[in-house]
Input
Amino acid sequence: MTAMDMVKITVNLIVIYVIGGLIMAFVYAKTSPIMFIKAKEEKEAALKLMVPEADKIVVLGEWEPHEKQAEYYAAQKCGELKTISVKDEKTGEMKEEKECINPEDIGYIVEGFGKGYSSYIHVLVSVDKNFIVQKISILGHGETPGLGDEIEKDYFLDQFKGKSVDNLVVIKRETPDKIQAITGATISSRAVTEDGVKNGVKLLKEKLSGEMQG
Output
């Protein structure tokens, strides 16, 4: 093989890599907005399920558990839902929307992350105005199939309802007032309970207790 042949092969490889990179960039540019919109819609649906009786979910602020961006919210009930007509900025057409009159906080939701056995576990937690847990939901994780992924099961999640922040502690046996660990998955159980959920509820109390008293 001559030096000229080697140059040609090198140039051809560079061209292939450049074209491949451009194609990947083009595909990402086209699909990323769609993925973002879908993820946003899925998150909004998950938030609504956390407090089904709420008319409106309002972002109150952001925090960074394990250096991951997360938000916390107020779940509100409207004194009155008024139908108004607004102009769509994209199409210019008129559409109907609901305006919330005299909203009142009926609970709060916090998004959090717990460091599990093999992943960061993404959770949502809803509490009432006294910061008592009402519901938790697992949005995503990469825990071990058949063990850690039991955190998604109702028998584990249902334990959280009615728990205060002081009761969010994992116990390796049956317990009437704490959280019983999943057999063979204590790390995952603690990641959800004492990291994701407990720290999320603590954040809500720290951020909102003073506002409520004021």
